[in-house]
Amino acid sequence: MTDSKQEQRKTHFADDPAAGPLTTDQGVVVDHTDDSLRVGERGPTLMEDFHFREKITRFDHERIPERVVHARGAGAYGYFEPYASCAEFTRAAFLQDPGVRTPVFVRFSTVQGPRGSADTVRDVRGFATKFFTSEGNYDLVGNNFPVFFIQDGIKFPDFVHAVKMEPHNEIPTGASAHDTLWDFVSLQPETLHTIMWLMSDRAIPRSYRMMQGFGVHTFRFVNARGRGTFVKFHWKPKLGVHSLVWDEAQEAQGRDPDFNRRDLWDTIEAGEYPEWELGVQLVPEEDEHRFDFDLLDATKIIPEELVPVRPIGRLVLDRNPDNFFAETEQVAFHTANVVPGIDFTNDPLLQARNFSYLDTQLIRLGGPNFSQIPVNRPVAPVRNNQRDGYHQSSIHHGTSYSPNSLGGGCPALADPDAPAFRHLMERVDGHKIRKRSPSFEDHYTQPAMFWHSMSDWEQQHIVNAFRFELGKVNSMEVRVRTVEQLARVDHTLAVSVAEGIGVPAPAPAGQVPQPTPSPALSLENNRGTGGIRTRRIAVLAGDGADAEQIDTLKASLTTAGAVVEVLAPHDGVFTGSDGADHPVDRALPTMASVLYDAVVVPGAPGGAPVPGLQPAAVRFVRDAYRHGKPIAALGTGIEVLTLLEVPLLLATGQQETVSDQGVVTHTPAGAISADFAHAFTEAIAFHRHPNRPPLRF
């Protein structure tokens, strides 16, 4: 290699400390890259910030054609309808009339992995909704966490570069357990609140249909009188909020990497339309500063105990796309797609997204006409002077400038009194500075609130997650530094993590915050909600199994809305105890417990060998037990629990039905009782039973 080529390579090697300070692409030295230029500490971001614009523009254009983030997704069509008029707070037309249904398209996604990654990785999930309203398209572009990793959008390229695959080997795919992410986290404490969510079971939802969604930012409602109200958006699933546990999530990646995508598609095809309730937290403008955190800080939540969530409408998804690429892949969301009655705040992360999303669509979808793609096309009429460009599909006539007389002055501006989008007027002044408001500086109180809001089993899952993630980090310095940050959230948490990853326990971090817990954050408090509709139940059958028991229980569960599948050692049919052939839905060797929500082991009359004693079935029940899933055992099927030495009370003597920690047993052979069906249905409704004693093996 020549000296000139060596020098050229050196100038592009970012990790060389001798190369000099950070510069723009034009070679201009930069001394600050953590805050965008704004008017005052809490004012709007200025477009003259060429460093911010260059940095995020280059980031937006890094990938062709898949999304840089949220590449792995699934979507569906549906509708939204309000419960009542929201005119008191907003003039948005789609939030006025409970008799009007607004068409929607919703896309769910993971953040880190590429299109070919798995569904059940530990990651943030996108929850983006496009409302095709009568006043134009409105996009509520959110996540399944109510907070984000950074406070200012200028740091978004840094965060995504850190969480994405390592640049030298592009590993790991669809995972956050690697050095660069945790190096960033350990140096950027504003990430800690979202990291706590990421290490919780919230990061591995059972289904998109059982996942909350949040608008993340504080937006504004504006009513017809021009009065603003701060608003945060919440999506709450009708089926309850339920998650996987980490062990089953990892196995599901191998058994069915399309687990969440398939679940959404199949349930809609079956007519079991998922539903969410839209709720809002409303804060009057005059109360903007009454909290001990800043409403403009996207790393903070408003605890529901301080401002309750007010339900205002429901979302139903009732149609799958016809073509994945044309619709799910080409749908283009943008936080700045708002309608009259919904406006922005000076949240610096939101301000950046309002620039970035449009810029990204221009490169992803080949030019400025992506709004003409059917999945993006508004139902409201479009009249403007935009012309030509890549992929123009409209045939325009007449003039293309304003003002004009040759075209009759068309398209004319709206009359001053006519409905139109008008930004909320607010006073903005201040020096042009790169400085974050001091009200953004507390990075530890809300992560501590999240930790102290968790039940014992949720806290243990969080510790286990930190141990797994940091155990994959090669740099011991990064491990130590991350644990030191955790000590400022909670010392007990930090010590538990340190023990698992082989680093010294940190010293107490001084004034560790002890905030008031928020019960709404705990999954424990969501158990037992949502019923059992669409829950998948596996019945482990085989030749000689009691067909009457199977048919009775299947009918009961199906009536309650569950999906029941009979698994046997082979496909086709099994010969029941009645001598008749009965259909098999799946061959047991092709399935696994992680693909179901509960399992039933039927008995066999006359003390015959139980089909469930085969190794595959024993493993199936063992995994269901370890993952806290409901288990039902009937008659001689109880032998499976005995073989596994399940340390729970089993039915004895005159007790026909016994239920303990989601394990329901029924001793007599033959017909099952209503008590048994009720107990098992109730166990399924609780989704998971996390406090079971461990198995001996």
UniProtKB/TrEMBL annotation:
Q: Which CDD domains match?
A: GATase1_catalase
Compositionally skewed regions (Basic and acidic residues) per UniProt: 1-15
| TM stretches of this protein | none
SMART domains, sorted? Catalase
Query: Segment Disordered: which positions?
Result: 1-27, 506-527
Gene Ontology process terms (BP): hydrogen peroxide catabolic process; response to oxidative stress
- Give the EC number(s) under which this enzyme is classified: 1.11.1.6
Where heme binds, per the record, is at 67, 107, 156, 353, 357, 364
**Which SUPFAM superfamilies has this protein been placed in?**
Class I glutamine amidotransferase-like (SSF52317), Heme-dependent catalase-like (SSF56634)
The record's PROSITE patterns line, in alphabetical order, gives: CATALASE_1, CATALASE_2, CATALASE_3
Q: Which reaction does it catalyse?
A: 2 H2O2 = O2 + 2 H2O
Q: Which GO terms describe its molecular function?
A: catalase activity; heme binding; metal ion binding
Residues covered by the Catalase core domain: 23-410
Crosslink position(s): 3'-histidyl-3-tyrosine (His-Tyr): 334-357
Q: Which cofactor does it need?
A: heme
Q: Which GO terms describe its cellular component?
A: cytosol
Catalytic machinery residues: 70, 143
Arranged from A to Z, the UniProt key words for this protein are: Heme, Hydrogen peroxide, Iron, Metal-binding, Oxidoreductase, Peroxidase
Q: What does this protein do?
A: Decomposes hydrogen peroxide into water and oxygen; serves to protect cells from the toxic effects of hydrogen peroxide.
> Can you tell me which family this protein belongs to?
Belongs to the catalase family. HPII subfamily.
- The molecule here is called Catalase
Q: Which organism is it from?
A: Streptomyces palmae
